[in-house]
């Protein structure tokens, strides 16, 4: 029934390659099917003004798409002179989600910026960004711990994200672009590896949904995040 | 336990005054406690390019805050030269939510723009904007129906929104500003009067939450929306 | 002869309601006929760089219109990414006019920002903003005096503004929108309650005027400001 | 008493050199003392959308200052990414003033843009821009008349502008920069050569003024405009 | 003598991988040492207004760097709200250079946009962009030829670019970042495979150079472009 | 053969008038045929952050065109809200070129900004800006030396620029606008008075060129710069 022939609860093949750029303190290229996102982590000693002197750390994110990561070319946001609403919404979500999984006292007063740049898009770029972004973050933090700059691990439980939706009347896991553009309901679920919830966003596009359907999507999401967390752990230990 | 002395499942007093500006096709001033939002609806014959000629209608929204609607003065976005990320996120949510409750075929090829301007803020401005915005929208559509420009009612079920969150470890309904700024988990629930879900957003701020807690918040939200829908119906029939 | 049936030298009904928002140090809603402007005063300890350390105070103003305050919807300036020329011209006028009526030594080194937001427009918004802005300013200063932060009153004489113009060949007081859009000559007169001049702007739209006509408009303006100053005094003493 | 040693009612030396750039349809370099402004007129067949098809012409203006036209270097507005409030206020005034002196029916459906670029500033740049701008405009219109594109002269009476103010307690004509920066009251008077009024702006800087003083300034302004109109006529006939 | 141990006339290892993204009409990832640039070509039926109806084709380019492509993180241009001067200079150079090597009559009235996004930077990104950009362009054009949309090949001779400079007093080929940041003279040489010149830019940084040195750099550049052209041909035939 | 009737190696008449504005520390109006550029130098005590405390000086440049300096009116960059790519490219070139001719140790830790504003354009504005800019710079430095603020002359050799190109198949010196818009190859050559090279830029427009042609253009450029340097020296000694 799914365009890709996948089962309703089957994710696309996921791979995470780490150390893909020599300059960043942490980096990976995550591939969720044909969605490819490059994630890098940059450590900086400064924090935003509102937490200066608090001893707390900060994690923030920026998101972008290469102009031809999509089927037809998108205008370059730098050339348009501003980031679109969708970009801003997504990068706020990535930052918030990753921050929720960090012990900011343990991190100490420093900022880590996660850049998520979509190289190729086929649906689910925000979820891939969060999942890959956590890996880049973890690698950067490991470097701080090896150097003795951070003592207690501020990242004990992975943060991963997956989309689920109602496609052709059925709840399905991990929407690809053909499904996403047709889905009546579309949700993003961000959880820890131990299935604690961080952020849940469900949205009807020209329809409505019931609480039962919401619970079915939650079930699928838990399955997906469980699989992603294993892949994340394998990647950071590789 | 709540700063305001309210019960856990008690909303703030809500009022909706309609017809508050002489120029708009529909308007209301919604007060949810000390949060006051002016909502106006503007009917225009043109639609966005991507649906031109489709026969479908469009509903969109813009959101703003008066500079001194808040405790300390915020910089005016027009003077800063751009809308902030929070503003963009909120107005996209309002537009999406109201659109989900509209029969766009019945509306016909025209656009209705809902402007939500916060006169005084005390938490929950986006929810008040959606709830009041629906009333302004309904009044504008009624005008179209009275004029015979729209035959079948495109708005049969109200759309309302309420926030719930975990405050001091307890699930509470309708967060005000003192609660919102302290809440560990914060959610916005947009539903129809008949409790169909349109959008659900739950977000942990520096913590995580369980699926049980999520369900408790859903229960509270259903209660809140039920009350709001009654007030909306009374307002449009006044 | 006037569309509203008013006498040539008759102002629209004017009311000033104070204390309309709980956050601002001073606030009022001024109604001049169907023109409604919300004015708030914000006290801040900092002053602009060019008077830092001088001991002098500063008063500045910002002006905005709600998108649907007008007959047809105006584009939101925050969304357009800049304030229009008319907005900038008006807010500079408001700031300059109010500043001229302040004893800046008595105010002391602090800044008061007056926000004037037009809720509903029917001509004369800049004059209503100045007249209402002075009331908000006065209320904020009274708070400073009650707290002992300001000893000697820096606002001894009200500042009020009124428009006059040549409509259908006749000098008229307090132009409303139907008159304003037809007037050949249009002027704004800002004076103190004791009829000292602060700013006079007269402008011909596609015509010219004589010095005699100018004097007739001045006479009308003096009458109008006298009435406004009484209403201002009543409002601040309420 | 004046820093320059001029009499109270004495203008600075004024010269207008025409034909200073080979590309523009009309051009002049006006010098009012050490204030030098280059004015060019550009004729274009298109008019703004709001008068399209009306048969009426349009005159508009833009104003700029070279970065080092002033004592200390000003930041280039193009580099800052926007025109400042003062620039916008001034160019609106220039356009409005020149437009008031044009028979827009006789001009026919075309637009003339007057660019006023300050080469060297010493006070009174907006007045010099209007006075010189009228000359550039007249020269461009003469070209249209010679070509038979315009039959009846749309510019029968010059438009000129002069500033007057209260300096050291005395009313003075044609403020230069040292006077302007000290003046308690400062006004710009735009009139036709036959002393019809087009725009009057008087503004108190940290003080107030009486109606008597206003009349004294008007008297001075009439004298100044009379002198300027003679120089304009000589320039266009040269 | 060179930090990398290369001979004076030795290029870094160069590889070009084609078909790296599924959406673009042509694409490659070019690696010149540690400088990695992703190049994509997008074919669109429209051309810029100034050649509309001429029958001629157009080639243009855009350039960007991922924020962490560099040693320390650069601010994202989309977030800053504009492209920097260096970016604009580079993308104009890429577009101009590629255009010079195209038979625009043979291409026909269509536009091809080359996007060059730097994944990792180590000096020479603009040269790598041109060399890789030509490959992406060639692949897109081949697709048009296979489809019969273009009959005669508009790209008969490759366009490639290489930098040369005076480093530590010696002329060297293909500057990497450590050399580039120290070089007294730095040049970019864009040529066809048959050594016809398209663009030459030589620039002294805090020094000057002689015509003899210029000729030595030209000799090196010819050697470098010869090698690059072979790699380009191999890549497009792979 | 040339539209102007000049010989292939003949420059347009060049004049440099100094001291053209009373405010700038150095200024000139350079005329190269009908290309007229006003150049001013501003001395400021501050330097850019990246050299603060180094004891080194800085020279930078900004470039602009009056809207009607060209055949048809260009939009004002300040009104468009940004400098175009061409402007940015040119002002970076001017700054880089002038900086290369300065002994920054001798200049001392101060910044000199060269503003080049095109009053009338007829081709070669960037070259005229560099040649005239050097004169303004030299005059400002002379003032510093006279005041004893700079001891050893940081500007011992003039910097001048000239364009050459292939027009109608022939190498020609100093392209004017009619030639520039037709030339197949176009170059800018920036050298010192003693013919040391500072920057060379050659660019083919829809064609290619040979190394022989490049050498012919270099020969012409050397002749042109020699003549310009004499005129510069005369101007600064006048």
UniProtKB/TrEMBL annotation, chains A, B, C, D, E, F:
GO molecular function: 3'-5'-RNA exonuclease activity; tRNA binding; tRNA nucleotidyltransferase activity
GO terms of biological process kind: rRNA 3'-end processing; rRNA catabolic process; tRNA processing
SUPFAM superfamilies with a match to the protein in the record: Ribonuclease PH domain 2-like, Ribosomal protein S5 domain 2-like
Keyword RNA-binding (UniProt): yes
Keywords (A to Z) from UniProt: Nucleotidyltransferase, RNA-binding, rRNA processing, Transferase, tRNA processing, tRNA-binding
Stored NCBIfam families: RNasePH
Role according to the record: Phosphorolytic 3'-5' exoribonuclease that plays an important role in tRNA 3'-end maturation. Removes nucleotide residues following the 3'-CCA terminus of tRNAs; can also add nucleotides to the ends of RNA molecules by using nucleoside diphosphates as substrates, but this may not be physiologically important. Probably plays a role in initiation of 16S rRNA degradation (leading to ribosome degradation) during starvation.
Stored HAMAP family: RNase_PH (MF_00564)
Protein name: Ribonuclease PH
The organism of origin for this protein: Pseudooceanicola marinus
Organismal lineage: Bacteria, Pseudomonadati, Pseudomonadota, Alphaproteobacteria, Rhodobacterales
Gene: rph
